[in-house]
Amino acid sequence: MAVLSSSPKWPTLPDYFHDWALVDVETSGLRPGRDRVLSLAVITLDAHGRQTGEFSTLLNPGCDPGPVHVHGLTTARLAGAPTFEDIAPQVGALLSSRVLVAHNAQFDYDFLAHEFARVRSWVPVSRRLCTLALNRLVGSATPDFKLGTLAAHYGVRQDRAHDARDDVRVLSGVLRGSLGAAERLGLPLPLLACPPRQDYKPYVPKSPCAYRNPGLLDAGGPLVQGMKVAITGDTQVSREELVARSVAAGLNMMTSVSRHTSVLVTNDPNAASAKLRRASAEGIPLVDEPTYLGLLENVRPGQAKGAARAGTAGQRGMAETPGHATTAPPTTAPSIPAQSATAPTPPTAAADRSLAGRRVLVLGGTHEEAAAARSRVADLGASAAVNLSARVTDVVVLRGGEADRRMSRIASLGLRVHDADWLVAPAPAATPVPGQSVTGDQPDTAEVLVRGAVIDLPDLDAAWTVAATWGQHTACDVDVVAFTLDMHEQVAGDEDFVFYNAPEHPDGTVRFATDGPTEQAVTADLERLPLEVSRVVIAAATDGAATFSDIGAIEITATCGIDAAPIARATLDAATTERTMILAEIYRRGDGWRLRAVGQGYDHGLADLARGYGVDVTE
After folding, report:
1. Domain end among 176, 193, 210
2. Burial of 276 (0-12, 13-18, 19+ CB in 10 A)
């Protein structure tokens, strides 16, 4: 399993010197906490890339091994293998005090975290590095970012895909090549802090309600299957039992109150809970626990969810104006000033596309000047980069940009450098830059979207990922979140708000991932989204009092699969005072789904944005 001697030299940048633990797991499924690890391999390297240890084993998970056609691990083959509890101390020793490295590292880390939690322990690492995220930053001219594709790109032999022992050997070569590519660009590594956690809990799915919501509970009337029920305050019967009995009766139990709640159960209607305040504002009826228990004895049949409601999704789509965003601030949110006058606007049909296929990095200038330059880049058909990568073909230097720390690296790479006047009437490219995507074997074919632009998503049976990336030298934090909305632009419950502390919807259809300090992503499984979901809104919020003038531009990419090449990208700038921004929305249009690049910012914070969509936020 040793790294081949013909591999590239280990980088010399001191910031790249770490002790590494390279990990690959094969699993019985894709859901940490529900599915189990079937095989595990670890290679340890020192700060200079020399191998210091290795370990691999099959594991007996005590459950069905899942997709045998993928990993080849049958129940019979795993029967005599050790359990994770047997090897946890040895694995912990290999990981301890090292940076964990994996391809799609959140997947491997989360599975390990759950396995360690099952044996009442935790993953003994404080930082991790995702080679998938690193290569997205590098921007190598590859058709996708799958491990096998990157192995071929970096000259690493792959013998057996989805074999943990071979995959971790391949990973060692990919890491070496990736670090070398990152060093040539002068990139800081996307190391992500992951302090040891023991709070991982086994996955407990929430069964989706099979019935449509019939509306409010009538005074003196019966409960009907599909009604949305919330509970607040203390109860005589345990909350868990109340919920279980309600679900068994066909009711839709919610964790928050919205305009669509049918009834709120409370034994203290005068309490000052947020749910009671919202119920009062929305006119939601209240019943006490004894009354509710009596109603549970005779719940009327409801209407099963079936075909799409006639005229809803289709009529919404037909009412849209092409090229303009339809997402407005929710009606319950505070009044927010419109996007500033410096915001980019969609190009006309006759727009100049002379920079099509180019990738342009803008340095310097005020926030407004840089935003206007990036808008012009998109109008000319190019994509505006937020970081230096191997795909950058041109650099525009605005006032003060000559002092940017990346200028020396840009000069050594021989990139074309221009002033602001170049964007007024860009001259055709002169001699192609060696190694750049404009002349490479695998050019960036992602469609460039301007603010408000819409594309149809071609594969409706797949999971689509919208990833957001911002400048690596940004000093403040950004939080990416997602809201799963109904036709009234409201969440059905708090679980429809997906973010760092609640990274997965209970039914698994929407998931949040953090791949690095400046990259977060939301994945939506379109085929499995409930029929009542009409829209998934993806937003970003700054931390504390910071605004998007402190962050700069955010680039979003849309991919069909975690490690696929982007099919679309957009670079979005908010105005100087804004603290939240709607990045994109995935929404139903007739029988299909569409993606819109939105780029609409608001001055209020994330809590106000969430409340506007019906999320019960406690500050």
Report:
1. 193
2. buried
DSSP-derived pairing of the beta strands 99-102 and 51-58: unpaired
H or E stretch including 243? helix 239-248
Examine the domain organization and report whether 101 and 243 are in the same domain.
Answer: no
Closest CA to 535 of 490, 579, 494, 569: 490
Task: Single out the residue of 557, 553, 611 nearest to residue 578, CA to CA.
Answer: 553
Domain with residue 56: its CATH number is: 3.30.420.10
Residue-range definition of the domain harbouring residue 583: 314-344+450-612
Model confidence pLDDT, tens digit, residues 134-193: 999 999 889 999 999 999 999 999 999 999 999 999 999 999 999 999 999 999 999 999
Does 112 map to a domain? yes
Q: Would you say the pTM of this structure is higher than 0.85?
A: no
Q: Is residue 255 part of a domain?
A: yes
pLDDT single digits (tens) 525-562: 999 998 889 999 999 999 888 999 999 999 999 999 88
pLDDT tens by residue, 18-45: 999 999 999 999 888 889 999 999 999 9
Torsion, Cα of 137, 140, 146, 147 (10° steps): -90
**Cβ distance 44 to 126 under 8 Å?**
no
pLDDT at position 339: 35
Q: What are phi and psi of 428, to 5 degrees?
A: -55, 150
Identify the bridge partners of residue 542 per DSSP, sorted by sequence position.
Answer: 478
Q: Which amino acid type is present at position 494?
A: D
| Edge-to-edge order in the sheet of strand 454-456 | 454-456, 592-602, 580-589, 535-542, 478-485, 497-498
425 occurs within a structural domain: no
* Helix, coil or strand: residue 238: coil
Residue 443 counted as domain residue: no
Q: What amino acid is encoded at 442 in this protein?
A: Q
Number of domains within the chain:
3
